[in-house]
Specification:
8-stranded parallel beta barrel, homodimer, 17 helices
Chain lengths: ~525, ~525
């Protein structure tokens, strides 16, 4: 046992070597199926990442869509503190788009990548090694003309010939890349192999010592955190990771796990980050809420059961001495932040203060709206907690003037009759459209009634409900994933009434899908936007 | 790339060294807060573990409650194939109880443990090293008098003095323990440390080479799989793990991850297991359903997104050549088992066949009941898939004669009125009790009406809904966790109507809690049952 109190304090000054945290929640994480964050949500997450103290925010992949470009630009313009990074393939157009989106950031970075594995070179790029050398050289050179801070990744490096990878990285360094990231793109390597690979890379390319080495590991075999840690032990001083470990397939290295591993064991291993660990729990909740990706109860660090004393069961040993079964303190990851509590009689000022403590700056009309929802909730719940406030403010942020919206609904149901739902949807034009339907259950009936109201066919792909807080009067948060005209989109809704939360979530998912479809049509109309889908490192 | 087809076939005969899989889903996993499996569910999971091909099933901790004893005994009597293991502290009573429960198994094992770390010895056991030596010696000696197969664990070994741990393990071996398990009880170690620890243990205790070395790792820092793998590389030939990685706090090493890591990389690392990997997905679903513990979408191997092609998004590279971004084939983990499909006109015989393919042996009245539910469902859904069948049969298995049951309900609700629910609950006596209530939403109203009907106060701790399959007409599966009179209990319900599924889940959770409370009162009445809660390795 070594780490304990002081764990939330950043841990510098005790001789630990600083490892930078490069967060890719908004890029690799956001590429997960069904996640469709709008610009406002992305800015909100980026602001929270800045509060969390990450060193780099990979904000998106600007060439892939006008929406992605816009979000990266908005983050670059509003978020201060971390480096803001945009991803780009080696094509000139990609790099120009990345620069266009990030150029207003305090500290912009262009991250460019190309595969060095033969399997990718042959089957994905359909080219040869010589072309890869040339593309890497041209890309880094062009990026450096635009931006002083350039990162280069040899994609699928762990399945590539280490000598060829070293050669390509050498070219990138010669052209001015300051960060070399060695990704385990498909989550294939093991800690011992990765260590050996990176050691060999240092041998082959001594110039690697002059730049920052970075690791980017995927969790397909459950080893992302261990491989990242092995990378750090081998010399990496940047870790690419995502909140809740989201990302392509089984996701990326989980930010909260690698951070708490380094912090908890810093006196033994000598590494730490600048992360404000007490922000971890809130960041995890925000990302889970906005993406609709649940965190399983047994997830390390941020799962509901990660800390035994959170579960309400105080084990005998834990009571006698906390450290008998707990190596971390729940307070260090911010699990006590739920102590802010407002009641029925709390005023607008108290609400504003509480929201500011939670990191939300809410003013004017948004504050009025939040106050109205707060009062409605306070009428139903004895106590309104920080988690409730987070949920209702996040829900408010999802409202948009120009979108479809739930106006009202009515349902009759029971085990001895067919349900009947009537739903009114406010259209972007401002008109109200009403639909009526039976169904297999009341929610099915509501969903069918919404489809009738807006006259659009939707396929329900996923439906989840989570209680925001405990208790009978809990807010329920519903996430709906729909497929509309070949496009997946999600929507969330929060209410104490599950039918209302479901109806809201459904209308929002539908609205997001229709809006996405509109964006896509616009994109298809421009020649430049015909970008092949590529997962990135 | 190396592993591929043939991955489901067990992989022996190609020179890979066999690692045994010791599954602790029903012991360490079942100790997670809020999980309350009944004997029938435990037997069903154990039978599935046997089909999966695990080597050892740790079926429970018999001394802790009559319910645990009964379940271990039932598993020992009905499940054939794997070793059936019961956990015991070093006390004679524990070991006698473990033996009493497992003695009818084909291959029984007693697993006994005591801490060797000073922090546990002082704060949990409140004793000294000499006493630990004596207890270990007496426990293993007594266990060996009863049972030929005895496993010993020095709890919290990774935080203990390695020399003292070696000494205690040496005593256990001298007394006849055939398996020595070195647990990372609090999830504190790292792969390099664990490797060094085990190497040192071999140096200090050469007799360790004569027995089977086992590893048992917790995931508090996200390293359970990597540490287990490091243990195997250092000489361990048994891995203790749990399905979906459930267990105390952040859980145990995930069974499916370590199995697929060894299999996918067996040509490089030379290890494999006897697991029938095509059973992994189904086992994961069953455990998730019975425990109410969701699997996050980005969970490796069994998460919804673990395989890109499952998500409906075929990435460009994957289409060109599967191995560009996928190192495993979804078919190898059984993700194609959803191909069994029945329709409206399928008969009883087709249903019975389909259920048998899914591993359910259902006959007589249970088959009639399942057929009735199937027909009701087939009226609502165009196609009934394997996932649907699993869900309705699992739901039927939850029905018990002597429990509370949902009789009927009626609800009226809407965004412009207060909801009103009337619910009738069938009591264990056979009578129907009706309750009526308003609430914050229709589900709240139903839950309050149930409380009124049975005249019992309950606190809702958790409420989750998951769609069993995609589509508008999907079955919804609701899990409710209640706290009733200080006791946590869960219940599940399945229906196309979310209100009905919720009402069923609530009544079952309530019934489980009341039954548990009855068991606890009976236990408290017997002096012997005053067993201190202890988490085990």
């Amino acid at each position: 046992m070594s780490a304990d109190r002081a764990a939330s304090e950043g841990g510098e000054g005790d001789g630990a070597e600083r490892v930078e945290i490069f967060d890719t929640t908004l890029r690799d994480g956001e590429q997960s199926p069904g996640i469709s964050l709008n610009t406002q949500e992305k800015v909100e997450i980026a602001s929270q990442l800045a509060r969390l103290g990450v060193d780099v925010i990979e904000a998106g992949f600007p060439i892939t869509s006008p929406g992605d470009f816009e979000a990266v630009e908005a983050i670059a313009r509003t978020v201060s503190g971390p480096v803001v990074c945009g991803l780009a393939r080696t094509q000139k157009g990609d790099i120009d788009a990345a620069w266009g989106a990030i150029k207003d950031a305090e500290r912009p970075r262009i991250h460019t990548f190309i595969s060095t594995s033969d399997i990718h070179i042959e089957h994905q790029l359909r080219t040869d090694r010589d072309d890869v050398r040339g593309q890497a050289r041209a890309a880094v050179a062009h990026a450096r003309e635009l931006c002083a801070d350039v990162e280069f990744s040899p994609m699928d490096a762990t399945r590539a010939d280490v000598e060829f990878t070293a050669e390509v990285c050498g070219i990138a360094i010669a052209e001015g890349a300051g960060v070399i990231n060695v990704p385990d793109t498909v989550g294939y390597t093991t800690p011992d192999e990765y260590t050996a690979y990176l050691r060999r890379l240092y041998e082959l390319l001594p110039e690697l010592r002059d730049v920052r080495l970075s690791v980017h590991c995927h969790d397909d075999l459950g080893l992302a955190v261990a491989n990242s840690f092995a990378g750090i032990q081998a010399g990496a001083r940047q870790v690419e990771c995502a909140v809740n470990g989201i990302g392509e397939r089984a996701g990326n290295c989980s930010l909260e796990e690698i951070v708490m591993l380094l912090r908890t064991r810093r006196h033994d291993h000598g590494f730490d980050t600048a992360i404000e660990s007490t922000e971890l729990a809130r960041t995890s909740r925000m990302v889970s809420r906005f993406t609709g990706y649940v965190v399983q109860p047994n997830k390390a660090i941020v799962g509901r059961n990660a800390f035994a004393h959170e579960s309400g069961i105080h084990q005998d040993g834990v009571l006698k001495e906390r450290t008998t079964f707990e190596i971390m303190d729940a307070r260090d990851v911010g699990l006590d932040s739920n102590q802010i509590v407002l009641g029925k009689h709390s005023g607008r000022h108290a609400l504003k203060d509480a929201l500011e403590q939670l990191g939300f700056v809410v003013e004017g009309n948004a504050l009025n709206q939040a106050f109205k929802r707060f009062k409605e909730l306070a009428d139903k719940k004895k106590q309104v907690t920080a988690l409730d406030l987070e949920a209702i403010v996040s829900d408010e942020m999802r409202e948009r003037e120009d979108a479809h919206d739930l106006a009202w609904f009515e349902v009759e149901a029971g085990s001895r009759r067919e349900p009947l739902a009537r739903v009114a949807v406010k259209l972007p034009s401002g008109e109200e459209a009403v639909g009526e339907s039976g169904g297999d259950g009341p929610i099915d009936a509501i969903f069918l009634a919404i489809q009738k109201a807006v006259d659009t066919e939707c396929e329900l792909r996923q439906y989840t409900v989570e209680a925001v807080t405990g208790g009978e009067d809990a807010l329920g948060e519903v996430t709906v994933m729909l497929r509309v005209a070949g496009r997946l989109a999600t929507g969330q809704g929060v209410a104490t009434d599950i039918l209302e939360a479901s109806a809201r979530a459904y209308v929002r998912a539908l609205s997001n899908a229709l809006e996405g479809a509109a964006v896509r049509e616009a994109e298809a109309a421009t020649a430049e936007a015909a970008v092949e889908r590529t997962p990135g490192p």
